[in-house]
Predict the 3D structure of the following.
Amino acid sequence: MYGDAGNSAEMKKRPNLVGAVDQGTSSTRFLIFNAATAEVVTYHQIEIKQFFPKEGWVEEDPLEILDSVKTCIDKATENLVGLGYQTSDIKAIGITNQRETTIVWDPSTGRPLYNAIVWSDLRTATTVDELIKKTPGRNKDHLRGLCGLPIATYFSALKLRWLMDYSEKVRKAVEGGHCLFGTVDTWLVWNLTGGTRGGKHVTDVTNASRTMLMNLSTLTWDDYLCRFFGIPKQILPSIKSSSEIYGELFVTALQGTNISGILGDQQAALVGQSCFQVGQAKNTYGTGCFLLYNTGLTPVESKTGLLTTVAYKLGKNKPAVYALEGAIAIAGACIAWLRDNLGIIASSSEIEKLASEVDSVHGCYFVPAFSGLFCPYWQNDARGIVCGLTQFTNKSHIARAALEAVCFQTRELLDAMNTDSGLELSSVKVDGGMTANSLLMQIQADLIGIPVVRPSMTETTALGAAMVAGAAEGVEVWTRLGGDKAPPITCDVFEPSITARERSERLARWKGAVNRSMHWDTAGHAPRVSGDLWDVLAPGLYLWLSFGFLIASHVISKR
């Protein structure tokens, strides 16, 4: 896959280029940007396989991830040379990655000790329950004051704890001092900078803030958190800023080029959207959906189920900037499910046309809680439902309900963010593959009641990684971080088109559907009887018991 080349005059000037590895849940890409214009010169992309060994388990092959990165770098560089550039024009590369995904490997061999456990994996539900029992009052938010996160299946420490409990190979490697842990960024940097021959075992503050092991205030691995999870510090990488030289590429066609930027994918999108001011926010629509809100130099502890995270740290001696984050597990993955599991569409791009064939969902609501519900509910035992079906319902209604589900979830995140921050956003910037769907963007504007701003530059995640890499001390070819010098980006703006009353009524029906999705037993048994569910079932149960008592009394009297 190719981008457009710059003109011949630019090439004669020997432009400064910056590369960006964008290693996502479903694919790997390497993009090369012109540092002067922030435009993509060329790129290459490879899809990544996922494995589902058991219900709720999601894995990937760490070696496939690594090989895909090497191939993308080589292929994109080959494209670049074909366009008349030189490899030496690339001054640095940055890395942005799927966060929370957990990898462990033997540093003496470089071989993974287990498949990568992907961020959306649910196998740690029992581990979560056991750890919550250890807290005073069985409080899932017990650790929020230190790490900003609830005890939930989402985060890396839970995955690492599970590996140490259930994989004998991992447990023995940890006990014998033959194990390294890292999120995807750490695995890539270690291998790309030499691996068994002196690879750098590092991560950045944004990825470290997603493990539940880093103290948000000190930006170091926290003794209490490590003891709580029973994880030895010696297997953890060194924590660095998001913008500094970590080492040189030891492999690929770009051998000798500095790796000088690391950002978790959602933080990279925040930087790529230039959300450097307090109160600015972006929402990324990918496999999941992630709304980040810049809160400045002070971490804000959420009272509404959001996550407190590090947004970026632009250099060794620069302060950390924090963000509130709302995380949705299933967004684009819902559309993929309609395609792959139900066959309603042949390709994801067809969803907009199909959903446009009806003017509303006509009472059909889809809650895609395939991996439980993340923010603001944190219900591991929620499961997906489609409700409100009638004989009138067809696949177009279900398709539209799937799009609305993404937008309703974002609305709930936005409400929580407004409550935590005390400020209401006047607009929200968007990015990610799903934003090409204009119907989705219009539904989103309708359901949140504020304008949705879609930039013409769609590669904001990779752009963010390139920006921090190019701005690092010792590289310094990207000079526009956080400033007014950034080139203007044209945008499409979607304005709300429904009344506040209609918006409120639709949200209320959505919340009713969400309540029905909660507390499902994955073993296939009946729903657990929670308080709300009991209120629904009790009258019917009472009638059946009364009816049974009358029949029994009648039979006895006849005897």
